[in-house]
Amino acid sequence: MNALINWLDDRTGFKKLMHEALYENIPGGARWRYVWGSTLVFTFSIQVITGLFLWTAYSPSTTTAWESVYYIQNHMQYGWLVRGLHHFSAQAMTVLLALHLMQVVIDGAYKAPREINFWLGLILMQIVLGLGLTGYLLPWDQKGYYATQVSTKIMGATPVVGSQLQQLAQGGPEYGHHTLTRFFAMHAGILPGTLIAFLVLHIAVFRRHGITVPDPDRAPAATFWPDQVLKDAVACLAVLGTVLTLTIWKGAELAAPADPSEAYSAARPEWYFLFLFQFLRFTWVEKLGIPFGAIYVPGALMAILAALPIIGRWRAGHVLNVLFMMVMMLGIVGLTGLALYNDTNDPDFQASVKQAHVEAIRVEELAERPAGIPLEGAVSLLRNDPKTQGPRLFARNCAPCHRYNGHDATGHEVVKIVEKEKHGPKERIVENPTATDLGNFGSPEWIKSVITDFKGTFAALENVKDKEGNVAESSKHFLEGEMASWSTSHAQHWRVKENEQALSDLVAFLHSQSQRRGIPGISDEAPKRGRQIFETGKLPVGKFETNCIDCHSLHPIGEDMLLGEIGAGPTLTNYGGERWLREFLTNPGHEKYYGSNNAMPAFGGRLLDKELDLLVRWMVGDYD
Question: Per-residue DSSP letters for 328-386?
Fold first, then answer.
């Protein structure tokens, strides 16, 4: 080994290089406060190694980016681990940057003759933040797509050259495929290469002037090897342990694939940019404009940071610099905490987050089917999925009147924002529904409530007011009509214990006619008994004053005969099922349904056939 080492040293001179690297003098001895620079280099090394592995499977295009990340996350061997390490080490790097910057300023390591090295460090900080910003878009999911779109718009607000900068970053006037390829080129090539170049300069200048020690007499001088190396190694191990824990416990998130046609209110920048996001949300900042909040103020802070070596030439200046850093860091932490607090207490945002989580799980379920992901990309899976699109269509078309379990089917309350005074505070008012809640439409519970408590089921119609503020005549007519009177007058029948099973049988018969998935067939005993009640009105105790077929028609499944006559009341053929619901939504004013008493708009011309199909299939549960 000695012969080999001597041969290598004779050819390369590596012994001298190793000695220079390992036996750097540390006045005052090794200290834990000096580990931050080494941990930053360590986390960047993790980024490079894991990034290269991710690169082997990543495909940067709008129809393959999300799909390749999905493959990495769910199918590539240990891909979830590699991606998690890459994701969380990037976040750790931001924390370590802040700690390193604070340590440099507190120790006065920015003062002459180390000004240039400090400025090189600020450049490195900007590159690291740029890496985080560009990497956020690469999965091409909803979260990254919309959050990054905000950042490019902010770039476009730059005075004079804003539009040119925005077009340069996003690859043209539109945000799309070229934006992704530009960001990938910056994230995987330009920015890492630039960071390595400036890191070499940073270390070279650092070695020229050595470590800045505020109290060199605290302990005997030591060398980098082995004392400081041991502390650095322990710190790097702690960073690696933290990153691994987050990877295993939480994992890197992958939201649903980006869909420019759908709004996404759950988008937020990564937590280390939340302070700027919160700052821009202040009313007084909004009045001053995006350039003020996103360019002028951050630019002024960076200018002050760059001026710290000049201000710190005097003792009072150094004290002022330390106070400035502390105030700025407290401000960043405070704004970040305020942003998290506001989001936690924002019901609309929380509903959007929940919906985004549901869609992220759903698209993976669809992608795991035998057919896999089509050539059009994974976004087409959600666009053609009733479980995903149904709630959105309901929210847009039905929620202005109806509710779905108390909300608009996507988890949001139906509200209106009222500004009582011009430029004053805005008030969020929850709007009352003007039609019944359809959360359990067509279910046995729904049918039972219509039979036993018709007025209570449709009580929301009382919120329809005329010009004088009274209940509209159309609502009165419905709530005081034949079915409402029948439900009220027959309420005593259902309070008799012997009739409880009869009610269940009648409900079972009507429910079986919908032909929804998993529903008992008409041949089962309960629906058979229910049919007898529907036709005759006979109960174990008592009898209907008016039979169901006196008002409603019904064409039993598998039979040619028609029970009742069309026109007296809404037809119950396939009630609550796909066919009934599709025909009803297309033309609720048809004589088979509510005729001239109908107040509901027809959606036959409002929705495309595909949209109507998705909405109906979602409402009847026709999806896997």
Answer: HHHHHHHHHHHHHHHHHT-HHHHHHHHHHHHHHHHHHHHHTSTT-S-TT-THHHHHT-H
Q: Is the pLDDT of residue 520 over 90?
A: no
Residue 309 lies in a domain: no
Cβ distance 534 to 548 under 8 Å? yes
| Structural domains in the chain (count) | 2
Residue 246 pLDDT = 96
Closest Cα to residue 428, out of 410, 414, 443? 414
- Which two tokens mark 598? 């109908």
Q: Which two tokens stand for residue 131?
A: 């890496």
DSSP-assigned letters across all residues of 78-110: THHHHHHHHHHHHHHHHHHHHHHHHHHHHTTTT
Domain boundary among 545, 561, 576: 576
Specify if 605 maps to a domain: no
In terms of pLDDT, which residue wins out, 340 or 418?
340
Q: Which residue in 252, 268, 439 sits closest to 360, CA to CA?
A: 252
One-character DSSP codes across 428-464: EEEPPPSS-B-TTTTSHHHHHHHHH-HHHHTGGGGG-
Residue 248: CATH number of its domain: 1.20.810.10
Tell me the C-alpha distance between 398 and 391, whole Å: 10
Residue 508, domain extent: 444-576
The rounded percent of the chain whose pLDDT value lies above 70 is 97
Domain membership flag for residue 24: no
The contacts of residue 2 (CB under 8 Å, 6+ apart) are: none
Per the DSSP assignment, residues forming a β-bridge with 465 are 471
